[in-house]
Amino acid sequence: MSATATAKENTVTFAKVGQPAPDFNLPSTKNLETLKENVKLSDYKGKWLILMFYPLDFTFVCPTELTAFSDRIEELNGVGAEVLGISTDSVHSHRAWIKTPRDQNGIEGLQYPLASDVAGRLAAKYNILVEEANIALRGLFIINPEGILQYAVVHDLNIGRSVDETLRVLQGLQTGGLCAANWTPGQGNLKV
Q1: Residues 61, 92: contact at Cβ < 8 Å?
Q2: Phi, psi (5° rounding) for residue 173?
Q3: Nearest 5°: phi and psi at 107?
């Protein structure tokens, strides 16, 4: 095999807004007891998906984000969205964290599944993998019902994400129109 062919094989195609989201099939906590039910992008066909990468289980900022989205899952589901959390931790670590009470830095009662990207391959496709530590930055991605990536935001490890802003952007995307700066649900779209 030529050096050019090898280089092409090793090239990672990064996720891009407006393009199909990278496919995945990852171990998950969909069945918390057996951990034998994988989660796939195709599971969300026909729904909006909020894909939320986070660095590590049993840390400090991560549980605040994951529980904030969980506590508002009815609101998110009410606008046709599902949430999937992903880190490079194993599903066994995810399960232990989900079974840990919130007052002990756990995420007990989490209302959506967590997926395991142990090798960091999906995080790499979203260009958020910190390779030397094999952890993901805080990447939040919104994928439309047709599987097209519509929104991408990446935070440093120390800054949590906002459920309010995610809902605002999601609802703006769902209008299908032009949304001005500081647009809020209920406001009209820009007329051109």
Answers
A1: no
A2: -60, -40
A3: -130, 35
- The pLDDT value given to residue 47: 97
Q: Are 88 and 121 in contact (CB under 8 A)?
A: no
Residue 11 pLDDT grade (very low, low, confident, very high; cuts 50, 70, 90): low
Decide if 108 contacts 102 (C-beta within 8 A): yes
Catalytic residues: 62
Give helix 61-71 / helix 163-175 axis angle, nearest 10°.
50
Give 53-81 as a DSSP string: E-S-TT-SHHHHHHHHHHHTHHHHHHTTE
The partner residues of 49 in beta bridges, in order of sequence, read 82, 143
User: Using an 8 Å Cβ cutoff, are 48 and 82 in contact?
Assistant: yes
User: Each residue of 155-181: pLDDT tens digit?
Assistant: 989 999 999 999 999 999 999 999 999
- Euclidean distance between the first and final Cα of the chain, in Å? 54
Ramachandran angles phi, psi of 80, nearest 5°: 80, 20
Helix H, strand E, coil C: the string for 18-60 is CCECCCCEECECCCCCCCCCCEEHHHHCCCEEEEEECCCCCCC
Compute the radius of gyration of the chain from its Cα atoms. 17
CATH class of 46-172: alpha beta
